[in-house]
Design goal:
By secondary structure, the protein is α+β, with helices and mostly antiparallel strands. The protein has 4 helices and 7 strands, in the order H-E-E-E-E-H-H-E-E-E-H. The protein has helices at 2-12, 50-55, 57-70, 101-110, and strands at residues 16-17, 24-29, 32-39, 42-47, 81-82, 85-90, 95-99. The chain has a 4-stranded antiparallel β-sheet with strand order 1-2-3-4. Helix 1 packs antiparallel against helix 3 (57-70). It is globular and about 55 Å long.
């Protein structure tokens, strides 16, 4: 019920639901894209560039207002955590870092493994990963 309402309203302001993931919506404005990811009661709005967000800022404000008129919402500002991942941005370098350090630490402590001996990762630390196969 709430998803159908949200989807209809998002599509009404120009977002398109992803064929691959029902929780992902995409808004294309000129050459920029804005992604809106919905997971239960969390919504994350993201884009490749700060300029893209500025270009669609009014649309994002409209979505926030629209969602706020339909459901109880709390805008937490720039994302720092989402689905157990810590999000760190470096605007100068244009980078984003996702970490699950806190979630992993909580699991280790919950299962009484806080004093366990560490072991090195079996993968070589000098291996370079690339987008090309």
């Amino acid at each position: 019920a709430w998803y159908t309402t949200l989807r209809g309203k998002l599509e009404g302001v120009g977002f398109r639901a992803s064929d691959a993931d029902a929780s992902l919506f995409v808004l294309e404005k000129s050459e920029h894209k804005v992604f809106l990811l919905v997971y239960v009661d969390d919504i994350l709005v993201a884009s490749k560039s700060e300029q893209a967000v500025r270009d669609v800022e009014q649309a994002v404000r409209d979505v926030k207002q629209l969602v706020g008129s339909l459901f109880d919402v709390l805008d937490l500002g720039e994302a720092r955590f989402f689905l157990g991942m810590e999000i760190t941005r470096d605007w100068e370098k244009g980078s984003i870092k996702l970490s699950q350090h806190k979630a992993v630490s909580n699991i280790i402590m919950r299962f009484g493994m806080g004093e366990a001996k560490l072991s090195s990762t079996p993968m070589s630390t000098s291996t370079r990963l690339s987008k090309r196969g």
